[in-house]
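Could you join me in thinking about how sequence relates to backbone shape in a protein? We need material for that, and I hope you will provide a protein of your own picking. Once you have written the record down, we can walk along the chain together:

…
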Amino acid sequence: MAFLKFNKNELVNLSYSLKREIICSNKTGAYSNTSIVGCNTRRYHGLLAVTLDRFGGDHYMLLSSLDESLVIRGKQFNLGIHCYGDIYEPRGHKYVVDFAEDPVPNITYKVGDVIFRKSLILALDKDQVLIKYELLSSPVPVTLILKPFLAFRNTHALTSQNPQANTSYQDIPGGVSFRMYPNFPDLNLQLSDSKAEWKYLPCWNNRITYSDEYRRGFDCTEDLFTPGLFSMRLTSGGSVVFSASTAEENPAQLKRRFNGYEAKLPVVDDYREQLRRCADWLITRHNGVAMINAGLSWLKTGLLRETLIALPGLTLNGAGRPALFEEILDNLIAAEQERLTVRTTQVEAPLYLVVALQRYIDWGAEPAKVWKKYGSVVKMILDSYLPGRRKEVAMHPNGLLWAQVDGVALTWMNAYVGGRALTERAGYQIETNAFWYNAICFALEMETRYGLKNSAFTTRWAPICQMVRGSFRDVFIDPETGRLADYVDAFGRNMDTRPNQLYAIWVKNSPLDEEMFPEVLRIIDNELVTSRGIRTLSPRDPKYKGVYEGSQIERDLAYHQGCTRPFLLEPYIEMSFKVKGPSFLKRAEWLIEGFWADLSKHGVGAFSELYDGDPPHEPHGVISSALSTAALLAVSDMIEKYKEA
């Protein structure tokens, strides 16, 4: 990724370097995540976090960090860095002279006339992180000392010194093995240098502080166990590879393994390739089951809404793999039967399955085959919204869906403060009912073309479809202003300007006349569009919060009350091309070029979940978002299509 540039002079500035994070993931569901100078600032940071089925499939941090020290002419220089309260010790960042991601994350240090580099790679197909250390230049031999920090805890939690921890170790070829608590896997620490020495010096490092957690008002300190030290000699031009793995490795193969994995990484020299690489990071195959990780490094894998929204972009626009699209969708349907057809707090999410199928057909899938395979699922989803089927949402006599559970936010705008939903939006929600109408129309069209003749399904649903279209207009169009309501409850129309109205014109089967499309886009253009996505609320609204900073409460107040979402660019740009044609091309390019500029901050080489609604639109949220990545892939395809035309 030579096109990613960093300010070398600023690397020693912690206000610069701690905001920029390395993120790597693999097909087993493991990940590595830390800042570009190796200082962990979040509880989610660490060198090896793995997915453990025995504990419910969550991520568990095994190896938190690995401190390096160089002994040069009898003097020790510590390259590690940790935060204790407001003190950083050691302060190894002062030796950093370069950081690059070409082709793997690597940090270069300069200590006097000694130049030293470490490179990190996550194994593609196993729970293993490999770190290669190279003494690039040195007039004298150097002793390298490695000090591991062990966590053995859930990535959402923090650990502390405790008598239950098993601090003993087992000797294994080329290193040592630890299992601090029952039912955890072994953590095997090994080196390629057969002459490396291990010294057992058990100690707890107490009160390590994670500055990002502190800034957000969360518990932010923990105790990590350091069992001892590895030491080995290096001469100029020499190298050694360190491995941390849940499986015992052959030390003699570690260098070859590192070089082999590095050689398999695709060459990335443009933004499109970087998008594809990120898409690949977000698709796991844990235990052979293909799924989508909603966002690295703390969102779950296999979430219903996020998978359905991101699926076409990641698998079709990104990988061009229709078989992978169906495999992930099949796994999702098998795992989410209850949410799809019985109960869910994501009332619009099951209906989004139809949108995913429509995108699949647009991409080139045969409609008859799609309906034959998924038609029964679509019908079951539609039936589940009929009266008396679901407690959280049901079709009213006017054909529209009413969603309400007191105190519960039932849409994607689901932030809470003190147990209270900030955007409950109970009643008729505009996007839910747009997806509802679209799904009914799709099912009727598919059943008419590829289903049974004189089907009882079409006889039953055709009049409902007509009723929904008429009711949608009557309910959501404000007669005085001609604008669309965000939702309608027992007190009337809520006229907050939010992006949900965009879905009413974006779905393939819109319940609105096309004459309304330009007006909806005009409102979104004037109040919601930014250079980093679409705002979740108009700045003209008193509830608007334009910056996602501060305590948990302050951030939750901004989460759906002003923060932008890059994933909303996909429907917005598609509709803008539909309404404005090729003349929108320059504007579309401008709307995504800012994300390329941001690749060297927040998640290095990754695409963030959200941005501040106010300029300069700083990135926040998960540092590698499936929704953002998928949307930018889809938008890039749209732009290329119009360029070619």
About this structure: The longest helix spans residues 430-450. The first strand starts at residue 20 and ends at 25. Residues 28 and 374 are 28 Å apart (CA to CA). The chain has a mean pLDDT of 96.
